[in-house]
Amino acid sequence: MGFMELSNVITAKLESGMSREEIFKKYVTAAPAEAAKYAYCIASIPAPTLRKQYLSTNALLSLLLVVYAVLTVLAELPINTSEPTIFIVIKTVLPLIFSYFSFCFHGGVYRLMGVWFLYDLLETLLLTGVPTGIAAFKLVVLFFVIMLSYLIARNVFPHLRVLGPKKDPSGNYYL
To answer: What is the C-alpha to C-alpha distance for residues 96 and 144, in angstroms, rounded to an integer?
Structure first.
């Protein structure tokens, strides 16, 4: 079962009233080797109260990611086709992919998004600076994307790391 199917099944079980621990125990007894996968899927689903509380912040983040993708293309205009353009494509498509996952409120993407865009912020500051108004606006949007992604990751999904679920001192997964 893939992550998307598993997340949908776990979400349905959570809505039916099962606790996160019960769901985890059920799946781990069937396949103990995939405990990290199940813990990750369970921890990636936000609690309904937190989802409602951070819905507008998450919508703003998704919108800013789309704006950032558009600004990336505008900052690169005119595009010189004699030079490689793969990096422009990557820097345009990846925010749109992140926007989709943040729109779906998938917890595993927020810390990864923050790391990716922090790298992008450092790269932009060190290599290009702020030569135009579009670049300055892009930096402001980039800063807010990083701040919102870490805010949501820290407050809504506290049991996830950049890659994978967190464990308590005794080695059990936080759910």
So the answer is: 16
> Cα separation of 23 and 96, whole Å?
32
Do 141 and 164 reside in the same domain of the chain?
no
| CA dist., res. 49 & res. 55, Å (int) | 10
> Averaged over 120-138, what is the pLDDT?
79
Residues 6+ apart with CB under 8 A from 166: 43, 158, 159, 160, 173, 174
Half-sphere exposure of 102 (CA within 13 A, CB side): 32
Q: 26 and 105 in one domain?
A: no
ω into 48 cis (within 30 of 0) = no
161 or 129, higher pLDDT: 161
Q: What's the helix, strand, coil split of the chain in %, to 5? A: 75, 0, 25
pLDDT top residue among 68 and 33 = 68
pLDDT tens track for 83-105? 778 888 888 999 999 999 999 88
Q: For residue 167, is it within any domain? A: yes
